[in-house]
Amino acid sequence: MKKNIYLSVIAALFAGFTLTACSDFLEAENKTAGGQTADDYFGKDATSLLTSAYESMKAYAYIPDLFSRGTDLYIHTRGHVATDFDAYTLTPENNTISSFYANVYKTINYANGVIFYAGADSQLGQEARFLRNYGYYLLTQHFGGVPYVTEYINSAETSYPRTPLSEVYASMINDLTELYNSSSLAAQSHTGHASKQAVAALLAKVYLAAGWDLDTTVGDEAQGTYSVNSTSNFSQAASWAEKAINGVSLTMSFDLKWSPYNEGNEEEIFSIQYERTGYPGDVSNSGHSMQNGFGGYYGNYNASGIKNVGSDDQQSEKSMYLFEKGDNRYDATFMQIFYAATKNASGQANWGDEGYYAYYNAKDLSDFPITRVYLPYYTTETEAEAWMKEHADQLIANGDIYANGNVIVSLLTLPNVTTWTLASGSTSFQKKSVAITDYNNQVDNGTCVKKFDDPNTDYTDTNNDYRDIVVLHVSDMYLVAAEANLMAGNTAEALAKINAVRGRAGLDALASFSAYQPEYYTTSTFTIKDIDLILDERARELYAEGHRWMDLRRTKQLIRYNVEFNEYVNSASDMQGNDGKYKWLRPIPANEISANTGISNAEQNPGY
């Protein structure tokens, strides 16, 4: 008998889906009731299903292939080759695609189960409706129209046709609007619950996506040109973004916003919850690995004392020059100074209060030894050498004491990176100019993202990050409002929101969209447009958060940006399928088409 994704989801519910690190409505102080299975709860009340719905989001909270690759911001280094997502060679058989599709529908079916047992208007049902709509938001952004299922599936039904995208958007908008206006959800929640603020934020994103997908007409796909046929959805997106902002001004510093000691702050709207303390399972590998992405490679973490990062999703050449001088988001996003770790009796690096995490855990960094420094492009060589002279007492190369025996300072410029290396036992730096291609292939090849660092990380390589994963937050809503206002023709309002974001970053206000002149290199055929300012601000404000591919797809710039900035795409034709159509969406998984009698191969997305 054929089994489709939906049957497998419901089967998983009754096969003992393990609930871990999350119970009692995900309250921060009660996120540790692991080891309980679905069989312990199902049939008693809907609380366990809601817990399962929240918990299931962890399966797709962080998927770099899907959310970040095949864009303008990230590259692979040290010989790591392009993935199918980078090069647009995806097929319907791709496992990442099919797992994502299945896992999002798992959340949706859990949510539908809560509604089935508790009622749509119950407190449980209201939270479940938010989660269901968030799932459909993700699915529509990647696949377009999908089967829109609002009934709890507990049968062997195998026919679920694709619902037209316009109908999915309309259904989501109706449900979310009613939820905002009539529900008893809390006004806000910073503990992982759905709230009215989260509903407003999701509505803003849905309206914005609907505006682009339903109310614009693409002209030249490769050039990203378009015309706007209606501004209604964009105006609604701007209005709902204001509701989500909820009067919160961007007065908190960007660094404090992302501090590991400031989770659940006023800018957070909705997050996926993690908790290290009291976790009953294997804490060494039950977190996530966001802190282990988006950087270079610094050697074996046991030997170096530096967190494990694998050379994937490193800064692209555009990203290296994305932040202008004075933008404090750069220092808050990237780790520029790596501190040294002494060796223990086994010759391995001491961990925690030393090495990489000394930045967070050491009592005094003013005289703490430094092993690696990564300076941004706008630093001059004179400034770099003056900094080295000022910190000479901290730049000590001694392989007998420290895990990294040498000290390396890198000035991240193009086409060559300037490095200063102090060998173990030496008292003078050796200066060298290294071509960026060679630099990318060596160890210690650039900075890494620090936004997701967990200072309590154990001595392990990955999946030990227990920071909450922020899904919706206020400055994102500022930029949603900016984009929506731009598309609705309200340029002044759009610019005001952009300048609010830039102002918090320490930058001067722009007098107009045309006043924006980026520092990164472009070819003569790439002309900066108004939408590019929006996308660049989103790149800076939301770097590595997992929005980029959806942002480029939504704004019709996916092909234009990949041809210009993605080194794995040589021309627009690389993003076309055998049918000559551009791959604006992901393929519907092959196993879904083969098992779901409501979808045929003829309904596969263009390009596949």
Structure overview:
The chain has 608 residues and is α+β, with helices and mostly antiparallel strands. It has two domains: 5-273 and 471-603, Serine Threonine Protein Phosphatase 5, Tetratricopeptide repeat (Alpha Horseshoe), CATH 1.25.40.390; 290-454, no CATH class. The protein is built from 22 helices and 15 strands. It has helices at residues 5-13, 47-56, 64-67, 84-87, 95-118, 123-143, 165-182, 196-215, 232-245, 254-257, 301-304, 317-320, 329-333, 358-361, 381-390, 436-440, 474-487, 491-504, 530-541, 548-554, 558-565, 590-595; strands at 18-19, 36-37, 74-75, 216-218, 226-228, 268-272, 314-315, 334-335, 337-339, 370-375, 407-411, 416-422, 430-435, 448-449, 469-473. The chain has a five-stranded mixed sheet with strand order 9-10-11-12-13. A two-stranded antiparallel ribbon has the order 1-2. The chain is globular. The chain starts with a helix and ends in a 13-residue tail after the last helix.
Could you say what the CATH topology of the largest domain is called? Serine Threonine Protein Phosphatase 5, Tetratricopeptide repeat
**Strand arrangement, major sheet:** 9-10-11-12-13
CATH class assignment of the largest domain: Mainly Alpha
Largest sheet: 5 strands, mixed
Briefly note the structural class of the backbone.
alpha+beta
**What's the gyration radius in Å?**
24 Å
- Average pLDDT confidence is 92
Number of domains: 2
- The total count of helices amounts to 22
Determine the oligomeric state from the structure.
Answer: single chain
Instruction: Label the CATH architecture of the largest domain.
Output: Alpha Horseshoe
- The rounded distance between the terminal residues' Cα atoms is 27 Å
Strand content: 5-15%
